[in-house]
Automatic annotation (TrEMBL):
Residues 37-103 form the RNA polymerase sigma-70 region domain. This is RNA polymerase sigma-70 factor (ECF subfamily). InterPro entries: RNA_pol_sigma-70-like (IPR039425), RNA_pol_sigma-70_dom (IPR014284), RNA_pol_sigma70_r2 (IPR007627), RNA_pol_sigma70_r4_t2 (IPR013249), RNA_pol_sigma_r2 (IPR013325), RNA_pol_sigma_r3/r4-like (IPR013324), WH-like_DNA-bd_sf (IPR036388). Belongs to the sigma-70 factor family. ECF subfamily. Residues 132-182 form the RNA polymerase sigma factor 70 region 4 type domain.
Amino acid sequence: MDARSNGELTAVFTVDETERQLIQRARLGDKMAFAEIYRLHHQRVYALCLRLAGQASLAEEITQDCFIRLWEKLDQFRGDSKFSTWLHSLSVNQALTSLKKHRSFWARFLPLSDSSAETCSDGTEIPDTSLLDKKIMQLPERARIVFVLFAVEGYSHEEIAALMHTTAGTSKAQYHRAKALLKEMLS
């Protein structure tokens, strides 16, 4: 698309066109293009990983796993959907895979308490977010993952069941458990 400015012909790119060009360059091995894709999408992927992991340090590691996976799978992006949608799906799948590899972290859950201290399940301070987000991070792993995927990300219980290799009924039970725990924590 072209536009005239002060009598000169200048190129005008939409965000989608620029992103498409970055994707194409990254597919060809251009690390600078991939770095720009990372810069554009890092915060969103990190926020998703933080909600799913409940620990800042683990979320950072999982975010890196997501972008490594993106580098490996970039050729599979067909353009049928928005890149951000495809990256979100890839990130959810990678985050769940990474969480399975880090089960030992979940053995150290702090018991639920009346304490007003705002900490993640590993005892680290929670970054400045809303009270609800802080409480979500304190939920047990499976309840937190189901709650985030269903209530925040809009997945159906059937989709969650497929991602977590369980049943829709189990997903619903975990969601209701998360809601009950959140209600108790917030009261």
